[in-house]
Amino acid sequence: MEGEREFEQEEFEQEQEGREQEGGGIEQECFFEGDSEYWEQRYMQHKIGWDLGKCSPPIKDWVDQQTDKSISILIPGAGNAYEAAYLYEKGFRNVHIIDFAVKPLNDFKLTNPDFPVSQIHHQDFFDHCGRYDVIIEQTFFCALPPSLRVNYAKKMKELLKSNGQLVGLLFNCQFENGPPFGGDTQEYERLFNKYFRDVTIQRCENSIPPRLGNEVFIHISKPY
Ligand SMILES: C[S@@+](CC[C@H](N)C(=O)[O-])C[C@H]1O[C@@H](n2cnc3c(N)ncnc32)[C@H](O)[C@@H]1O
What we know:
alpha/beta, 7 strands
């Protein structure tokens, strides 16, 4: 579809190669994907191949099926946060976003002036405190170094209310070098079954065309 941009792994790789070629000096600036600075630079240089420019269709469909608009929702690693803008437009008022890069959050404020500033958190996800009915996953998990996956699952459990749900999209494919870091259903089941009940992972049929067949939709519930 016009205007849609693929999660451009090549772009990530070229950048990594560039950094290696420049490397060697002790004064070299060294960023890695776990740094806020790495992501800040990507936004500053507009190297944002993952950015859809709109709410991801599978998440839009999920939102459209929700009847209780009073639920509290968190979107971590939200970037330009099109999903939050869509939720807000649909009347969900208790929506919070987190990102440790400030540029997308400032841009979001400009394009969504009515969205409460107190619900925009410029922070590391792992430092966030709160309790939510739902947490939405959209290309945040795949951006984290895989060594943080167990911490991600534990933190999600901590941030969800009892019976709360983690919903959204994960890649169901491998990438040569990350980010993005891929995975598969078996790995995700092993990870989330440790901390949650009712882990449902389904092939996603309404992904954007470049990701079709390479994403799964997750519904993961915290125990009562
Ligand atoms: C691949 S981008 C995805 C952005 C957005 N979800 C989207 O789909 O357009 C990953 C985002 O996660 C953010 N991020 C990565 N690690 C983070 C962390 N530990 N805490 C908060 N934000 C983080 C980055 O700054 C970046 O905006």
